[in-house]
From TrEMBL, chain B:
NCBIfam families: PRK11650.1
Annotated protein name in UniProt: ABC transporter ATP-binding protein
Gene3D superfamilies: 2.40.50.100, Nucleic acid-binding proteins, P-loop containing nucleotide triphosphate hydrolases
Domain ABC transporter residues, every copy: 4-234
């Protein structure tokens, strides 16, 4: 339950630094000329703003409330206030730092793979070729598969060490099949999640690449830039803003991946992310207070990541 | 050095032949303008010379070297695009330096050429700005600067002034002409505006549907157009064409008379008609005359002081020595 509380909370605290909400008020001001119209606009936006605020504040307050309590639903319920005990216990647990590390490795790995392959795929899909429309739809398709389903398909059909497709490939080359989820567990999770998010990155980057003025590439060609340099000096800078958007949006969602871990490794073999650790504290240990404290740490981690990301890539969003 | 020769060059896109085989020579240091209505293949011809499109057949020679299959960067030509095609994420300085950076020119030499180009084009104060912070005319100058620093054997301009407002266009036209006087480099300039062609060119190439209609100096084209198309395209306002009996009197299928070669009078003349619209430009007045029995409308240029109005009957006398005669195919007679 506290997992459900803390998750929306950490998503929503990520939201303010994101670009879109910030640019909207400016656009609204521009359209409504008079003071009267502005007041009316505020009044009409109020319900939505209040609803969103409530949506964010209620779970956040409840998470904070439970995090200072000893609350064990199956072992006596509410056992009173305990101050910062839950916070100390959560951090001092031997599982805490490895879980932070696993979270960052998985998020970073997926981001790197989806951005690099996304750029390459976008360039490929932008080439004129036969059946381009169909290929584009096929490329988008994985995004529509539910995370639970895709993770199960990967686990049972591809990564199974006996009957999996990859095991057959390994055997075809005479190699011992890899027990993916045990021997390369983090990499496997990264692979599965990347497969899910690659279409998103490709889609955003493809639309960006389509807006590149072909005369710029021709000018660079006349200026003596070979294809690789045209990519580095013209295409990549043009894509920087789209890459930023992909990185920021994906980070928000990747910090809270859960289903992929739940149906594959169940957090074993170093794949226990912070989200999964909180889930275990709340549901497996039945300790809501401890889990809520973990939720607050998740909010802090998400904001630290957000600050770093905005420092690194945020400048691409201006101008 | 920049003599460009096209030898039976043609271009097809799929089954559609946009440029039938054509021959053309552009001499070193010449300012050549390709002019024609939109879709006549003039930009395609320029892109063939630049190497951005492959020729379907024929040969392109630059300074007697076969350049037909040489990649664009190796042809030693610089191009200024209609959209300027500046690199938006680079400062003006970096934009201008880009071709030299690609050619691995030493940094001191790069800076020297950038300073020289910036001075020549009044860009010194803008070197550290991004293209997005510049006005249209300034962007145009940056694009020209980026072309100049390569020290090309010829400049190619693809409708460079069509995105500028009228006043700026006149200014930039002069600047490009001055640049040509100073550099004495071959320039090929594509435009659909016959005024630009007439004012800037040493040699005009008039194109229609991929075919060269006539090549010549501006005044040659004005005085002795080879056919009706060139006669109608060069000169503003358009030449009047008269068919039928009046043309037969001169022994031609069609006669053409420019608006500025018709005398206007209120009392007497060869032809008469009723003024439909009079356009007063101050220096000149244009009358659009109906009901002459010769053609639907006859356009006449008169002095700015001549004050006929809508509905006035006027008399017109063509100057006999400048009547252009065309046969049934539209070709010039004698």
């Amino acid at each position: 339950m506290a997992t459900q509380h803390s998750q929306p909370a950490d998503r929503l605290t990520m939201a303010p630094p994101a670009p879109e909400p910030a640019s909207q008020p400016a656009a609204a001001d521009h359209q409504s000329g008079t003071k009267h119209a502005r007041t009316a606009a505020r009044l009409m936006m109020a319900p939505a703003v209040i609803l969103l605020l409530g949506w964010m504040l209620v779970p956040l307050t409840m998470t904070l409330y439970f995090s200072f309590k000893k609350f064990l639903p199956l072992r006596g319920g509410d056992l009173g206030w305990v101050g910062f005990d839950n916070y100390v216990r959560f951090v001092s647990s031997s599982a805490f730092w490895p879980s932070v590390q696993a979270t960052l490795v998985i998020v970073g790995g997926v981001l790197a793979i989806t951005v690099v392959l996304g750029v390459l795929l976008a360039i490929l899909l932008n080439q004129p070729m036969w059946g381009r429309g169909v290929v584009r739809i096929l490329v988008i398709a994985p995004f529509f598969v539910m995370p639970t389903v895709s993770a199960l398909v990967w686990k049972n059909m591809f990564m199974d060490p006996v009957n999996g497709l990859l095991a057959h490939v390994w055997r075809a080359f005479g190699a011992e099949p890899l027990v993916w989820l045990t021997e390369a567990s983090t990499q496997s999770i990264i692979l599965i999640v990347s497969w899910q998010w690659l279409p998103f990155a490709t889609l955003i980057l493809l639309t960006a690449i389509q807006s590149l003025d072909s005369e710029q590439l021709e000018a660079a060609e006349m200026d003596g830039a070979p294809p690789v340099k045209r990519f580095a000096y013209i295409t990549l800078p043009h894509l920087s803003r789209a890459i930023t958007v992909v990185v920021l949006i994906q980070t928000i969602f990747l910090l809270s991946i859960f289903a992929e871990i739940f149906v594959t490794t169940q957090g074993a073999f170093g794949t226990k992310t912070l989200t999964y650790l909180i889930f275990q504290r709340v549901l497996e240990s039945q300790n809501i207070g401890l889990g809520s404290a973990g939720g607050v740490y998740a909010i802090i981690l998400a904001n630290i990541v957000a600050i770093f990301l905005m420092r690194i890539v945020g400048k691409n969003l201006d101008a | 050095m920049g003599r460009i020769t096209l030898d039976k060059v043609s271009k097809s896109f799929g089954d559609v032949q946009v440029i039938p085989p054509l021959d053309l020579t552009i001499d070193d240091g010449e300012f050549t303008v390709f002019v024609g209505p939109s879709g006549c293949g003039k930009s395609t011809l320029l892109r063939l010379i630049a190497g951005l499109e492959d020729v379907s057949s024929g040969q392109i020679r630059i300074d007697k070297q076969d350049a037909t299959h040489v990649p664009p960067a190796k042809r030693g030509l610089a191009m200024v695009f209609q959209s300027y095609a500046l690199y938006p994420h680079m400062s003006v300085r970096k934009n201008i330096a880009f071709p030299m950076k690609m050619a691995k020119v030493p940094v001191e030499e790069q800076n020297r050429r950038i300073e020289a180009a910036a001075n020549a084009l009044n860009l010194t104060d803008y070197l550290d700005r991004r293209p997005g912070q510049l006005s249209g005319g300034q962007r145009q100058r940056v694009a020209i600067g980026r072309a100049i620093v390569r020290e090309p054997s010829a400049f190619l301009f693809d409708e460079p002034l069509s995105n500028l407002d009228a006043a700026l266009r006149v200014g930039m036209r002069l600047e490009i002409s001055e640049l040509h006087e100073r550099l004495e480099t071959t320039m090929i300039y594509v435009t659909h505006d016959q005024v630009e062609a007439m004012t800037m060119a040493d040699k005009i190439v008039v194109l229609q549907a991929g075919v060269i209609e006539q090549v010549g100096s501006p005044l040659e084209l004005y005085h002795t157009p080879r056919n009706k198309f060139v006669a109608g395209f060069i000169g503003s306002p358009k030449m009047n064409f008269i068919e039928g009996k009046e043309a037969a009197k001169h022994g031609a299928h069609t006669i053409g008379i420019r608006p500025e070669h018709i005398e206007v009078s209120g009392e007497a003349g060869t032809w008469s008609g009723v003024v439909s619209v009079s356009e007063h430009l101050g220096s000149d007045t244009f009358f659009h005359v109906h009901g002459t029995g010769l053609a639907e409308t006859i356009t006449v240029r008169a002095d700015g002081e001549v004050g006929f109005r809508h509905g006035d009957r006027i008399f017109m006398t063509p100057r006999a020595d400048v009547i252009h005669k065309f046969d049934a195919e539209g070709l010039r007679i004698a």
